[in-house]
């Protein structure tokens, strides 16, 4: 009976000793400190503080036998098997001495390993080390800002452990590729991470072809209607020794007709770019967007002897990105060699039916003409006008056989867009024509989908 009581007593003492709290601070010292440490030693300390905290370790004293790369005696500090420091030496000027600098653990644990060899000199013995550790609240810092987006707290505060934040893009102008929003939490390693432990914030991508203002299908530039603000947010007012148009296709990229840039000998200094308004009188009050470079299709070869508008396409790179809003948005680029729809819309600041330059952005809805009819029209005009070049597969016609509605001078470089799945795609660029809005005459457009690969390649190579 006495033996049983002794066993129960020992068990009770063991439980009470092991059931200890995780400390918020403490001291760690080498064996026998402040006396010299023993030889042939391998001692390990596992420090731990509560979740939501990290460990700050500060040495008040360190005197460990110095050796190259601390190969003799050393103190290693590790976190999850990753070495945060390996120390030896006597003075803070020694290469492997920590000095007064504290060590911060990525998480709530630290491991210290003290190793000594077979000697600790009797004449000048080394005393080892003494350190103090304390729990420091995990703080992930302010969430990084998201370009063209924002962030808000869902739970927690002060950027502390397990605080939950949500990133969002500035819709409807920008969006994440695969989600409307992305959640991040403050992790134990003091980094904001998503549910997949990824610390990289996904970028916000521009939304293309989705104006915030809808057009009336009944409304029908020459013979056109006044465009509401925001209905054609990809429209650019271009000045190159005269007025013309261009098209927003990215935050730093515009597309236009190559012959518009030919007027200024393809020099960027003479290209004035304006966006964000439907009135010329207002848009020119804005500061023009600086141009970084011009990129004309390499096979565009117009000349004074023959008006050859084949490959009439060029790109303009801006010096800085546009921030999109309801008045400035890109139109979508079609996949390579996409078939044309049957009808589309054209906008522009060109001549009106009175042959006066329009102060207002106008638009028209036009049917696309079959290629056979287009070819017959062009060949008929070539028989009359010797300086007109041939129709190629890189062009298409649009317009009404009875005339009355058409693009005209000043509209070149603007977009002919089609609509599919509530999204506008740029099908053509206003290129050339013979007279404006006359019966039997059609406007001729650069077929954009013939150049999609070139457009994307040019933008990728000139980022």
UniProtKB/TrEMBL annotation:
GO terms for cellular component: blood microparticle. The keyword Protease applies. Residues 9-136 form the CUB domain. The keyword Translocase does not apply. PROSITE patterns: CUB, SUSHI, TRYPSIN_DOM. Residues 1-20 form the signal peptide. Residues 221-460 form the Peptidase S1 domain. One of its GO terms (biological process) is innate immune response. Keywords: Disulfide bond, EGF-like domain, Glycoprotein, Hydrolase, Immunity, Innate immunity, Phosphoprotein, Protease, Serine protease, Signal, Sushi. Residues 138-206 form the Sushi domain. One of its GO terms (molecular function) is serine-type endopeptidase activity. Belongs to the peptidase S1 family. CLIP subfamily. This is Complement C1r subcomponent-like. The gene is C1RA.
């Amino acid at each position: 009976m006495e033996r049983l009581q002794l066993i129960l007593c020992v068990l009770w003492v063991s439980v009470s000793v092991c059931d200890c709290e995780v400390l918020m601070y403490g001291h760690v010292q080498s064996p026998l400190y402040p006396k010299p440490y023993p030889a042939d030693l391998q001692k390990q300390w596992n420090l731990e503080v509560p979740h939501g905290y990290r460990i700050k370790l500060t040495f008040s004293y360190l005197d460990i036998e110095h050796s190259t790369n601390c190969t003799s005696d050393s103190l290693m500090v590790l976190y999850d098997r990753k070495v945060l420091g390996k120390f030896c030496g006597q003075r803070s000027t020694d290469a492997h001495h920590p000095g007064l600098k504290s060590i911060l653990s990525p998480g709530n644990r630290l491991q210290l390993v003290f190793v000594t060899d077979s000697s600790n000199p009797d004449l000048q013995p080394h005393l080892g080390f003494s350190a103090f550790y304390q729990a420091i609240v995990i703080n992930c810092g302010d969430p990084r800002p998201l370009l063209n987006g924002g962030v808000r707290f869902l739970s927690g505060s002060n950027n502390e452990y397990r605080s939950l934040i949500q990133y969002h893009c500035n819709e409807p102008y920008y969006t994440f590729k695969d989600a409307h929003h992305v959640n991040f939490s403050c992790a134990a390693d003091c980094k904001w991470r998503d549910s997949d432990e990824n610390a990289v914030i996904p970028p916000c991508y521009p939304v293309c072809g989705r104006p915030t203002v809808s057009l009336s299908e009944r409304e029908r530039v020459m013979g056109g209607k006044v465009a509401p603000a925001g209905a054609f947010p990809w429209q650019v007012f271009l000045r190159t020794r005269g007025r013309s148009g261009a098209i927003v296709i990215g935050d730093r990229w515009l597309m236009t007709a190559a012959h518009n840039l030919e007027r200024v000998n393809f020099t960027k200094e003479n290209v004035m770019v304006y966006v964000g308004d439907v009135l010329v009188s207002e848009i020119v009050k804005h500061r023009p967007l600086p141009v970084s470079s011009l990129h004309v299709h390499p096979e565009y070869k117009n000349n004074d002897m023959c008006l050859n508008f084949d490959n009439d396409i060029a790109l303009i790179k801006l010096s800085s990105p546009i921030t999109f809003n309801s008045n400035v948005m890109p139109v979508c680029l079609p996949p390579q060699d996409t078939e044309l729809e049957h009808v589309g819309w054209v906008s522009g600041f060109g001549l009106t039916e009175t042959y006066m330059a329009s102060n207002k952005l106008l638009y028209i809805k036009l049917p696309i003409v079959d290629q056979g009819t287009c070819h017959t029209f062009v060949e008929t005009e070539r028989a009359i006008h010797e300086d007109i070049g041939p129709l190629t597969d890189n062009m298409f016609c649009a317009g009404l056989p009875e005339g009355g509605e058409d693009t005209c001078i000043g509209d070149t470089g603007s977009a002919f867009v089609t609509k599919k799945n509530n999204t506008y795609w740029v099908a053509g660029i206003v290129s050339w024509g013979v007279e404006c809005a006359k019966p039997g005459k059609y406007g001729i457009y650069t077929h954009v989908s013939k150049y999609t690969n070139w457009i994307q390649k040019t933008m990728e190579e000139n980022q």
